[in-house]
Amino acid sequence: MKHFISVSDVGNVSALxxxxxxxxxxxxxxxxxxxxxxxxxxxxxxxxxxRLSSQVAASNLGMEAIVFNVDKEGWALEFQxxxxxxxxxxxxxxxxxxxxxxxxxxxxxxTFPSLKNREEDYSExxxxxxxxxxxxxxxxxxxxxxxxxxxxxxxxxxQESLVEHPLQGKxxxxxxxxxxxxKPLPQCVAxxxxxxxxxxxxxxxxxxxxxxxxxxxxxxxxxxxxxDQQKALAEADFVYVKNWSSYQQYGQVLCSDKNxxxxxxxxxxxxxxxxxxxxxxxxxxELSDExxxxxxxxxxxxxxxxxxxxxxxxxxxxxxxx
Amino acid sequence: MKHFISVSDVGNVSALxxxxxxxxxxxxxxxxxxxxxxxxxxxxxxxxxxRLSSQVAASNLGMEAIVFNVDKEGWALEFQxxxxxxxxxxxxxxxxxxxxxxxxxxxxxxTFPSLKNREEDYSExxxxxxxxxxxxxxxxxxxxxxxxxxxxxxxxxxQESLVEHPLQGKxxxxxxxxxxxxKPLPQCVAxxxxxxxxxxxxxxxxxxxxxxxxxxxxxxxxxxxxxDQQKALAEADFVYVKNWSSYQQYGQVLCSDKNxxxxxxxxxxxxxxxxxxxxxxxxxxELSDExxxxxxxxxxxxxxxxxxxxxxxxxxxxxxxx
Amino acid sequence: MKHFISVSDVGNVSALxxxxxxxxxxxxxxxxxxxxxxxxxxxxxxxxxxRLSSQVAASNLGMEAIVFNVDKEGWALEFQxxxxxxxxxxxxxxxxxxxxxxxxxxxxxxTFPSLKNREEDYSExxxxxxxxxxxxxxxxxxxxxxxxxxxxxxxxxxQESLVEHPLQGKxxxxxxxxxxxxKPLPQCVAxxxxxxxxxxxxxxxxxxxxxxxxxxxxxxxxxxxxxDQQKALAEADFVYVKNWSSYQQYGQVLCSDKNxxxxxxxxxxxxxxxxxxxxxxxxxxELSDExxxxxxxxxxxxxxxxxxxxxxxxxxxxxxxx
Lengths: 322, 322, 322
Fold this sequence. Notes:
The structure is a homotrimer.
Chain A: H1 13-25, E1 38-43, H2 49-60, E2 64-69, E3 77-78, E4 91-92, H3 93-103, E5 106-110, H4 118-122, H5 125-134, E6 138-140, H6 148-164, E7 173-178, H7 188-200, E8 204-208, H8 217-220, E9 224-226, H9 229-233, E10 238-242, E11 274-276, H10 289-292, H11 299-304, H12 306-321
Parallel strand pairs in A: 1-2, 1-5, 3-4, 5-6, 7-8, 7-10, 8-9, 10-11
Helix pairs in contact in A: 1-6, 1-12, 2-12, 3-5, 6-7, 6-12
């Protein structure tokens, strides 16, 4: 693995999931793999789980991790080719990236979409420019349209749950459901979950959302789209809850119907489904207290698994550099 | 020691003071105690001494410390049970704490009072919720009403001074005096100093402040309250200077009388008293230059001792986890 | 070397340059030199290259580096003697510095000029107060009027280039040219480069800028001042590009003539000059894309060399402490 930006950087999804679960069993198995190596963790947006789980994962591999909060530490980067920099940006990615590539063996970066210009966001200009100029392996800590470390974690959590509670040969039914939120959020967690579940191939996969919230088919192709949440949830084994803003009417909030927030009542037709969410979650807006505090919630475990997913990816990259 | 929130978490105050002074003599005596352990240092408010001394203390014990400035890194936490999170908070403590508890072996957290709602502040809702949901030992880096690492440091500094300049069997007279400030400050340093001096039992203890600045008796019981600063200071061996806002008229500034600021003149009736302050100090508002720059000031040494106090506490917690 | 504030702290400039180039060849040659030592990196202003290169340099020497963003973490320091602190500053340098000196073996600090009061800025009050009160070796990460780690890096980069492309016995012609910018910037990079090139003595040194941009002669004495950029550039081997605000009409922007921005055209009379800049650079304002993206730009390599310069300086300081 040279870079880690999307599922297409992964040779064998199931093998990567298995590797993450092995690290969960023995965190320090590869403590020498990253000796003398440094990873720079760059955040253009705030992060809690991604930042801390990546630091812990790097440390478990013996790597030194150095965090740089690009936004909070006062560094506005320019990404446009040919820009006349007479505004608020202080440094071009073409200058910053190769410098960072000299300081670190691996660079990991979180960027965010504008949610204003769909074409620009979906071109993934920021992270692609970064890869182009950094000269070292780049790991996405979430980009404008994808969040691959989250999606790997999600599959790790589903797989772990299936090992504990086998489904007797049947493929699990996995439902991704839209949920309300007070702000327009990126589509990246949903896009990414969709492309990873499809690439994995181990599930019957249904996506449910109000009309107007259709995701880019590039990611969802292969999944069943069902606009009726109750129909979608029938016999579900895993329900992944997430808000996103509209892809069609780009970045807009089209629906605030509270009925889309799951309650125990809405889950009655499921196969005692496990409920997932990437966190942070707005309680009683996206998901009800009763579900988050109930015994079928996987959200805490899921967030804990972020460490093992990051560790598996970093190990692959370190192995590829050797 | 399971958690470290107040003096009541400590079995033997004098023994903990002695342990801190031992670490001052040999900082790396327990360099292997924390091997492979991680502590998360979470700040909901800015911190200089507490942050750096905790990092150094952890490092002296071989632990990895990771800092997360919750406020500055853009993470507003919700603490109210049942909240409908449609406002500015992005994540509930019920979700964040157990995630952090999976990433770290020990969590340390700084919270702050609102100074608006006394009942809420004095319920210590924030840190108690944190303990309830984190699932790992929690160390207070200052909470709404207490600052136990500071108070342990204060006793360490008094004890160190007494060893160097013994008082011939007599108990030292320790005076806590209120001082002016331009802003309303929490009562936590004063509350905490009071309960630690009382629990320690090694001093004749007097508290002096203007009327209306009475602290909660829960912490001060056993101390003499004297409204006349000059009377209080007579024959004092140690004078601890600190501003706090009113507990009775909660969070208000009732007095700005400059005569409450100590000068060399005010100290003439003392037993050449050593002067203490937890820092940061507003010079020539809370304390005069002549005292801070004079030879009886302990403030720099006191701040240096923060390392050894934190190290003693972390060592107790690591020993209890084994 | 006790402190590192200006070129006058350096015994032998060429030897220090050589030491940095040795570390570039073998980064871990002195991995044990800093064992058990801690450096505090304090930033009163944002920093990318300086922060990261210093962390990497410290780590290469086995030191633990702890970063504290004084500004971003909410700590406004007071530097005036005798101040009555009833304003926005929360702690006096006289109190903060000796505390930090107890936590760290070496302190490194970045301060900035006001660009309003020349006398105050040029007195270097901030860093001098810091040295006076810290009690441990202090390294400048850029001060009000100088940036010595940058200047050492600049000489390292020139020397490295000369080794690769020897000039047949002739001294290189080094030209420092002013360039436009949209904001008033400090003079420190230019001042410092001037005093280091002069102290080094290995170049024919010319400084060119519009009238009114004369630097303090204390730093430039020995260099040729030439107001005609084209004349200055003739036969140049190295062209160092940098904006600064006026020293005479202190802190003012007197010129915004775009002709001062270098293009390939302006470099035609040079000896295929290498182009340098300390970064960050405002593209197409200070320097054109065609030069920055061209094969004679040294800026990326120069920024990479920051690590080796910092490592050489830290090693000198560690050796002097032994």
